[in-house]
Amino acid sequence: MRASHLAVAALTGLLAWRFDAAAATTIHRARGSILSVSPQQIVVSSLTGDSRTFAITPQTRYATERKLALSAIQPGSYIGSAAIPGGNGTLTALEVTVFPPSMKGAGEGHRDWDLAPHSSMTNGTVGALKQANGDVLTVTYHGGTQIIVVPPGTPIVAPGPGNYDALQPGMKVIVFPSPKDPKVADRIAYGEDGLTPPQ
Higher-confidence residue: 172 or 21? Predict the structure, then answer.
């Protein structure tokens, strides 16, 4: 039981970056492929073709993401979804992360995000779920509700704890700089089996 509690605590700590509302608009994340990595630094090629270098320290944390089926989203699921404005006041999901029950309530709310122009991040509980050509989710959180349309093919992932040894050149990652020093990697997220972290 103690090992299980430690794993939950580690996962919660590793993924705290996703829920920092203040950091959402102030931290510039690096999304791309690893050009090189060593115990001292990681160099990432960005989506625009340039590269960014971050120092790796003993405090740098790691997280994995694995692919899920759309059916993993159920009423009562606690999710996070990066999305863009859709029609009739809805949001269109760019990705959905399905969190373990132990993380229910973490970072609950709706905030700006930097994945795409006018994108947002919503963390909340799935209530009504309409399954049609994709899913239409009613996501509730303290103080609000969002209707999120999940088109077919939208990346659906689950998070987990990672480690430095898994990092390899060519791997798709998101590097989250330290709030105290933008040249230091605070957290690094990578996908399993070639998955690109979709956030």
Answer: 172
